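Consider the following assembly input.
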Amino acid sequence: MSNLTLGKFIEMSSLVGNKNIVIKNSDLPLIIEREGFDFISLNKANYYQDCKIDERGIDKSFIEASAAIAETGTVILKSKSEKIRLASSLAEELNILLYEKDIMEKLEEAEFILSEEMTEDTNFIAFITGASRTADIERVLTIGVHGPVRMNIYIVQEER
Amino acid sequence: MDIHTKISENLKDQILFNNLKNFASAYKISRENAFKGIDFDLLVQDLSKRKSRNKKEILDLFAEFKKNAEKSGAKVYQADTAEDACKYIADVCKKHNAKYIVKSKSMTSEEIKLNDYLEKEHLHPIETDLGEWILQIAKEHPSHMVMPAIHKSRQQVAEIFRRYTGEDIDDNDIDKMVKIARKYLRDYYFKAEVGITGANVAVANSGAIAFVTNEGNGRLTSTVPPVHIVLLGYEKLVKDFSEALKVIKILPKAATGQIISTYVTWIKGQNESIKNETGNKETHFVFLDNGRLGFFDHPVLKEALKCIRCGSCANICPAYEMVGGHTFGHIYIGAIGTILTAMFHGDEKAKDILKLCIGCKACSKGCPAGIDLQGIIAELNINISNKYGIPASKKFIYGKVISNPTLFSLSMKAASFFQKPILAKDKRHLSVSPLPKNKDFRVLPSVASKTFSNSYKKINQKIDSEKNIFFYPGCAVEYFYPYMGTALVKVLNRAGINVNIPETQVCCGLPALHAGDGESGKKTILKNLKFMGNPDEYDAYIVLCPSCGMAIKEDFNKYTADDPDIFKISKKIEEKVISFREYLQRLGIKLKIKENFKVTYHTPCHQGRGLGDSAEEYLKSLLGENFIQLKDSNVCCGFGGSYSVDFAGISSGILEKKISNIKDTKADILLTDCPGCVMQIEGGLLKKGENIKVMHLSTFFEEYLTIEV
């Protein structure tokens, strides 16, 4: 993991309109307290918070990405749990927690994750690159057609 | 509605014109950015090789997919026909008492007209892709594979939504329109009992599928309802995740110029589903044959099954850009659409739209799956013409006149005589067009009073050099532009090279082939080879018309393949075919410009994509600051031979754009190296009274350049 890969990820992620915030692990509790997320699923940090999700959607979800791809600005969400799928699809604001060491350089590297995860009988993996968008009316880019209107990525930088 | 009526309706549609023109120019820029730093050709070769499978191989992949998918609890169904697929899907919906069914965009479902079928069964499919939903409400069909509603303006969409929702929507408030779709469609996801998606890849060694969307509607469609049906063609099967990722990588770049689609969703098995009483989703994979499986063994059409449905062949097609997908396609649109129509919906539906191809090869060059779309269309045109026949007048011209050099030459001589009363002052053009008014958009050249072959005889070549080349003039130079040929002879003589020409000039055969008349094309080619000399005696076979060059390179071999002796000669000639400019470059002949003026250059389709490269770089180094880059230099000028008469409206529309770009350069001279492009562009400029000189490179070299020794 190099600064270059992190830099590339932030560059590409910003290009699709994401807000990228580099944090330290110790910042997490404060962020969680400040932001008031409706739904939280952070495996490594062991933070969870459930809520009801129906057609009205929710305001903010905070979900850990298991990996990311620098050259495309993509985060990878293991979404086998239906709640993760709903919380990432139906939140107005999707917040992602990403550990710097989980950022890969190239799309091709995702092959290993897919091959490994899909040995299970059932699985659902989402590559997400920005908020929901459409250009179906006169090719005018419009954000938030079905899913999130905003996407923020909190990137936990390793202590150097 | 007959195709010509449809075309004239399209050409009057200003909204369609603007939307497609703006898209085409924005697309080129985004695409170039998306592929920056990537070796496109290498990527294409790799993908094309991997996707090259025969019927047995694809069925092996299917068996592997089925085994893995069934192990994961999913159901796999093989639908032989469109009807079969529709019925299976309707039955699943009925079994679950589904009133509403949400759908994420699937061209395969358009192919089988699934919505019509479901509605007849009193089921309610709801399209969730914004573009598709707009069209569903408006009771229309997609005009583009990736941007279905590209033919609609914001005002039209506002009106459709006002009528449907009764809400007050401002004509320009796209944001509000999108919010309305969000509101309405959100409810349907939760009301629906079944979600239907397509798939971009189906991974055989895993039993997983993936699909891409930007809106996120695919994720919701496959997540919220308790049942998920995936409808897909066998061609979506890939071996493993490595191959799958290659498709995912190249698809959005070629489709819209995006680096990656916003959502790539990978699904395997029956995932957790609160709304299903079992706690798990019921998943069905419906594999559609509809004729595909047989085509995997077809020598030519199997290539079309490599298509990844990016739509780039429409995005860069100059004719599509004029008429849109409701005319240039049936259900599948663009170049691949015409081919898939022939494959899945029959040649009766395909025969007219296949003719809309102007032959510029832009689609073949840009296809991420490496499909030679133009080549396949040409082939289909020939097969279909064999079946339906070609107009008697055309058959007569290609079969009896052009293939017979004596008769052709006499006819042209007669034309040169009878045109006398309508000759323009410069003698090189006609003052009145013999064509009807709706086809009269350019000043036509006159038939020269003396053919090139006759002028050639008068040139005293006086060259001691051993170096001999063979110049093939082609019909345009022979009958309309002999001065382009004599210019070539003079320049080469100055460089100390002897020029030889065919004893009798015969057409290259391309016009007949392009019109779908394979028989006359072959006859012409065989006759031609008799006069092409002994290839061992010549350093090169030079052409001034890249279309002739391309015909010699590609079609001569193809149509002589059944006669080994003739094929041998054809092959040797093919290897020596070269454009005039490339030949000068190869010899390292240094040219120097005599005068100071601004010059721009149009790359002929059959030069850039047929013979392989454009003169742009060469002219840049030769002319320095005096060379001005022409925007979309390599986009077709709209000529296409008889296309410009058969589809004059499309041809003149394409020419308009070319002329507008040429005017923007403010150049004094437009250079090009194809007599056909000269005919089209010069004719258009003269008709408009524009004072820009159009020259073939050969005459430009002869008039304005000196050879530096």
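Chain A has one domain: 3-156. Ask yourself how this observation constrains the way the partners meet.
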